[in-house]
Amino acid sequence: MKLPYSLFSRRAFLNSLIGGWVAALGAAFISPLVKFIVPPTREPDQVSAPLADFKDMAPHTVKGFAWGNKPGLLKKTEEGGFIAFVGVCTHLDCNVSFVAEQRRFYCACHEGWYDENGLNIAGPPPSPLRRLAVSIEGDTLIIKKQA
Amino acid sequence: MNVLRAWIEERLGLSAVTLFLEKKEVPRHKHTFLYYTGSSILLFLGIQIVTGVLLAFYYQPTLAEANASVVRIMTEMPLGWLVRSVHSWSATFMIAIVFVHLLGIAFTKAYRKPREATWVTGVMLLGASLAFGFTGYLLPWDELSLAATKVGTNLPKAIPVFGAWLTQVMRAGEDVTGDTLSRFFIAHVSVLPLAILAFLGVHLFLVQRHGMSVPHEVERKGVKTPGLPFWPNFAFREAGVWLVLLGLLITVAVVAAPGIGPQADLMAPAPEGIKPEWYFLFMFQMLKLFPARVLGLNGELVAVLIMMAGMAALLLIPFIDNRPAERKGKIITGLAWAGLAYAVGMSIWSLL
Amino acid sequence: MNRRTRVVAAMGIFLLGSFVASGILEARVQEAPQAAVKPAAATAPGQETPAAPRPPRERMAVYVLLAWVWLSIAVLLGLLRMRIREADRVYLMGLGREAEKAPKGPGH
Q1: CB-CB neighbors (< 8 A) of C86 in chain A
Q2: Inter-chain contact B79–A35, Cβ cutoff 8 Å?
Q3: How far is CA B312 from CA B135, C71, C102, in A?
Q4: Among A69, B71, B315, C97, which lies 20 to 30 A Cα-Cα from C49?
Q5: In this structure, is the dihedral angle defined by the CA atoms of residues A75, A77, A83 and A85, taken in order, positive or negative?
Q6: Structure letter (DSSP) for residue B192
Q7: Domain segments of chain A as ranges
Q8: Which residues of B touch A32 (CB under 8 A)?
């Protein structure tokens, strides 16, 4: 069917086609660069440490360990087991500390408080401290991401 | 859309630029293809700046970390090997086209009046491009680049009076050390980019001001050469050239990505097979071949002096070749061909 | 193309080809173990780290990218040719020069 008038000129049509396709090609060139800008995540899947370092902890005490680039906190419970947290405040990512006398975790940035199980009890933090799964294999302590 | 255009026009007045680009004419003759070389250099310079900034996100310019950071870029960062490969190959492409551009201008004698200043800024740009290549080559800090830098920074010592001092300035002391690396890094990412942008600004302004030069043999005929409007006719042709160059670049970068050698050891003996990048090969070969003593003078000194004379001649060609159409001009063209043959011959010889 | 152009073009392609070939050869040499060129006394603690897409998924992605790049370039060159022909046709018609001859409106 032949149209009596053209909706747009030959020039405009070609310009749009060229522009569109150049944009697609440009995206193909830019995509590797965009992937390059963000390095792959460095959080480990699991961390192991010799049990001897943590065996003699008193209950309700906390010892630090390295969880990739973040601080990890290992706590000895009343029963003699271990629980582990990622020691990063859920508010704005500051590192938290353990106040032994109060058996609570404290974030100095905006005065956020967590109880000894990591539950957020006061201040701005919106959610509890992230838990990690702890298991003992022989004389090694294994800390993993919680499933 | 038109409202936006009117808003910008009232404040920036860019229509003067677009009108100029539409009016500007590119002469059509046998050598019109040479006019593509200038913008192609700009294309690769742009690619260098973008990939260079991205590499600098992860590169650590210290003695302890330089090589390891490059290995990290190549192995850990997503497509890091590709970004580095593009940066390395685009450098080669850019300098190759700089040479083609230089030869095109020289053989069509586009440097004759009133374009002498354009030529001089152009030679400055050539120097800056080669300096980019030289400083960049050291940054991976592997055995080959350390050795090549030691040789390269040794050259100025042969210059009388201030040669030794110049070498010390380049090396930050007597020897190539971590300080040399810092110096080369800051030259490569800060000093040279500023210099090249400054020279480029002047060079481009002069080119637009004087318009495209027509080869003197065409000009001599006296007839006005037919022209092509820059926008859109020539610009779209240029876009086609850019596309092909980009395709070649990415293909070569994928297929022949460079590796990296083990970290440089300042105490280790020099590895076998040192050679500089291809654009320095002819000078490298010349130095290898020169006898230790020439006419009672130090051989290296004579070689360096000859090289410096060559560079001076290159810089001052528009003033030397003041009668391009006559016999003097033809002799100079012949000498230029001889120089080119010499450079190419020496480069190929050094590879054998 | 006359003879001289052909000779110059052939020389140019030869030079360009030799530069690229030397670069590719150099990249190959750098990937081969260094023991081939170095004297036995000096040992390289780490071999040359070659650069290449290693995980098979990445390898496929990169070759797909190359194919898309060349396909796009072919299509774009075709489109550009059409656009250039249009621009040349308009230019040869001399519309720009005609526009200059027209008397300018009250704003000028």
Answers
A1: 10-11, 14
A2: yes
A3: 22, 46, 53
A4: A69
A5: negative
A6: H
A7: 1-38, 46-145
A8: 78-79, 82-83
This prediction has a pTM of 0.84
> How many contacts (CB atoms, under 8 Å) link A and B?
28
Q: Examine residue B59 and state whether it is found in any structural domain, yes or no.
A: yes
Q: How far is C82 from chain B (nearest CA, A)?
A: 10
For residues B251 and B47, the answer to whether their CB atoms sit within 8 Å is: no
Say whether residue A16 is in contact with chain C using an 8 A CB cutoff: no
Q: Which amino acid is at C26?
A: E
**Structural domain includes residue B307:** no
Asked if residues B27 and A6 have their Cβ atoms less than 8 Å apart, the reply is: no
Inside any domain, residue B121: yes
Domain holding B215, by residue range, is: 33-221+228-256
Report the CATH number that the domain containing residue B130 is assigned in CATH: 1.20.810.10
Instruction: Print pLDDT tens along chain B (352 aa).
Output: 788 888 988 999 888 888 888 888 888 888 889 999 999 999 999 999 999 999 999 999 999 999 999 999 998 888 899 999 999 999 999 999 999 999 999 988 899 889 999 999 999 999 999 999 999 999 999 998 999 899 889 888 888 888 889 999 999 988 899 999 999 999 999 999 999 999 999 999 999 999 898 887 777 777 778 888 898 899 999 999 999 999 999 999 999 999 888 898 888 888 877 888 899 988 888 888 888 777 777 777 888 888 889 999 999 999 998 887 788 888 888 888 998 999 999 999 888 8
Which amino acid makes up residue B288? K
**Residue A110: helix, strand or coil by DSSP?**
coil
Q: Please, which chains are in contact with A (at least 3 CB pairs closer than 8 A)?
A: B, C
Q: Is residue B168 part of a domain?
A: yes
Query: Is there a contact between B79 and A40 if contact means CB atoms under 8 Å apart?
Result: no
Q: List the structure tokens of C89.
A: 């046709």
Our CA-based measurement puts residue C84 at a distance from the nearest CA of chain B, in whole angstroms, of 6
Q: What is the ipTM of this complex?
A: 0.84
CATH of the domain spanning A46-145: 2.102.10.10
Number of domains in chain B: 1
Interchain proximity A36–B250, CB inside 8 Å: no
